[in-house]
Amino acid sequence: MCLSRIKKRFITEDDIICYKIVKKINNNYRSKFYNFPYKIGETYESKIVDNFEYRWTGIDYVLSPTVEKALHSYKHLVNAKMALKERYEGGGSKLTILKCIIPKGSECYEGMFYQYINYDYYAFESYASDTIKIIEEI
Fold first, then answer.
1. Checking CA distances to 79, which of 2, 55, 97, 138 falls within 20 to 30 Å?
2. Which residues, other chains included, contact 45 with Cβ-Cβ below 8 Å and sequence gap of 6+?
3. Total-model pTM
4. Contact (CB, 8 A) for 137 and 40
């Protein structure tokens, strides 16, 4: 998940509720891409790595800042559910949604995450932050 079409970079003034899609294997949660373990109730930190490059938007190529490494999450539950709807993870795991909080005082980017679903291209409002706390499974 790469955040692109960055709207803003900011320090959170309040806790922000967000949603993360993860793999669930034997009641253990892991990130989809890096297989990083998550536990409910725990807080995680990551260095943010951004990049400027030309990206395909589904319509054209634009020079767009992206955040490639950070703790990525969806801004809206409905978007996380839509992104999850058509996805299946094999190998004995399934994908699920975790409700999370980006804590007050965290470094955060807000932008768009682009994803193909059933041969259509969707843009979802998303976050990339340096800190995230896992609250519960949805």
1. 55
2. 71, 130, 131
3. 0.82
4. yes
